[in-house]
Amino acid sequence: MKIAVIGANGKAGKLIVKEAISRNLDVTAIVRGKNNSDAQKSILKDLFELKYEDLNDFDVIIDAFGAWTPDTLPQHSTSLKHLCDILSGKDNRLLVIGGAGSLYVDKEHSKMLMDTENFPDDFKPLASNMAKALDELRKRDDVNWTYISPAADFQADGKRTGDYILSGEEFSTNSKGESQISYADYAIAMVDEAIKGKNIKKRISVLSK
């Protein structure tokens, strides 16, 4: 299996690359500048300049792109649109690192976590832009996508426990009432999905046990 990781120099991207390599997968980093991940192969190219010819050899493309500043937040939508457009009608799968803010807090799926009163105001712009990107992704029947939301507490430096709980569209907690997962355990879930491909055209979520 050949996997490409877009944004492989980021914290999540690096751990996904590391996890995939540990499973003996053929991994290529797609980065704008120097490749600082463990991947031996790399494509030095901006996401927005990618063409299908750059991606056609990969079974799975993992989108670890991140945008955090107010002027770049809309790129969550524009970057996904670009990737979907070049993968339209193709067999390649697209796996996307999502956000927790768009997880539903009711069975009717009428209210998201980011709409609750305790959701931090500082994170609302990011959450709303990521939710918009997910809404647009749901309309793409022409792409084999999977959107994976982490738990609410997404811990960059958290420990790798080697385990996780796979959940669906609704916000959930573990037996301790916690909604958290480390980047390292999230990477396990991402690579598991890359290998198994059980949730095509679905949004799933993961959290620590």
UniProtKB/TrEMBL annotation:
<dbReference type="Pfam" id="PF13460">
    <property type="entry name" value="NAD_binding_10"/>
</dbReference>
<dbReference type="InterPro" id="IPR016040">
    <property type="entry name" value="NAD(P)-bd_dom"/>
</dbReference>
<dbReference type="InterPro" id="IPR051606">
    <property type="entry name" value="Polyketide_Oxido-like"/>
</dbReference>
<protein>
    <submittedName>
        <fullName>NAD(P)-dependent oxidoreductase</fullName>
    </submittedName>
</protein>
<dbReference type="GO" id="GO:0016646">
    <property type="term" value="F:oxidoreductase activity, acting on the CH-NH group of donors, NAD or NADP as acceptor"/>
</dbReference>
<dbReference type="InterPro" id="IPR036291">
    <property type="entry name" value="NAD(P)-bd_dom_sf"/>
</dbReference>
<feature type="domain" description="NAD(P)-binding">
    <location>
        <begin position="7"/>
        <end position="192"/>
    </location>
</feature>
